[in-house]
Amino acid sequence: MVDAYTPKPKHKFTFGLWTVGNPGRDPFGEPTRSVLTPAEIVDLLGEVGGVHGVNFHDNDLIPIDATEAEAESIKADFAAALKRNKIRVPMATTNLFSDPAFKDGAFTNNDAEVRAYALQKTMRGMDLGAEFGAQVYVFWGGREGIETDAAKDPVLAEQRFRNALNFLCGYSKERGYDYKFALEAKPNEPRGHMYFPTTAAYLALIPTLEHPDMVGVNPEVAHEHMAGLNFTHAVASAISAGKLFHIDLNDQQFGRYDQDFRFGSADIKSAFFLVKLLEDQKWDGFKHFDSHAYRTADRDDVIAFARGSMRTYMMLKHRVKVWNSDPVIKKLLRQINRESRDLESLCAYSKSHAETLLAMEFDRRELASRPLPYEELDQRTMDILLGL
Known about the structure:
Largest sheet: 8 strands, parallel
Helix content: 40-55%
CATH superfamily of the largest domain: Divalent-metal-dependent TIM barrel enzymes
Distance between the termini: 23 Å
Number of domains: 2
Strand content: 5-15%
CATH topology of the largest domain: TIM Barrel
CATH class of the largest domain: Alpha Beta
Number of strands: 10
Oligomer: single chain
């Protein structure tokens, strides 16, 4: 069915080899779906339709123990699948968390040899991503953390992480890759405590780097929701800082394990305000669905999952237009937002402005009595979301 909510490649929706290719394995059960090759995953996304791109970790594409001949064969099949399905590779990343060598982290590991291996593996991953035209390189520190604070000096661990990013920025510049680095935060899992647990923590780190212009963030819905935080606010901070280089869309209920649900499937109102922020700000980056179909899904249901992820975004995008043009919403916003150019200009500091403000008289009782119909505004939002 083709309608106004049907996605097109121009909408920049992407999926990972590890997302639609997830075989349904979880910590308590074996796979429930067949493992697909990278080329087969691209063909599946071609069947989904409207997909802009597919992303990968280095070992999603090339197994860690693959021979050179095996790697070349896999890459050739993958490239052919990309071409026949008209799908590109916008983002790549490195798996620095699955192999036992990284059991205590990669860039923050206490072992200098492991840290060196992590740099080598990432450089090779960057080479692989560049080979397929990736523009963004994501860093998720899956094992960068601790279970006991006795294990690591957190200041030293942060410095080691900073050193690694500085090194890799230099490598990207020297190779002419022109990557944008996007840092992805998470509060916990698989470590008990992760370094840089929130998007805000990475926004604080970036100005301390040697090449801060190259580095931004890749916030993920589930990772902020796990900690009970407002994801839209995290994304707003990234946009305000000019650092929203990539975004991971999925869904998550508070206090649970990392669920990676289909976008909008758990908290539709939060999803609406996220889409509203991205659309109102005219953010034009890649929108990556870092989520998995239910373990119960077969191949057809995985396709439904992928289509549903994009369709929900498109429907919410339409609801944003309805909300922004709704006369009741506009009336309420005019009542709530009391603008004054004179007062705004006074709030830009100068000695005279400070003296003027100090001399003014404010009627705090009158200020407190002004109505703020937020209940009505929120209910009108629900009416619009539910199509009433």
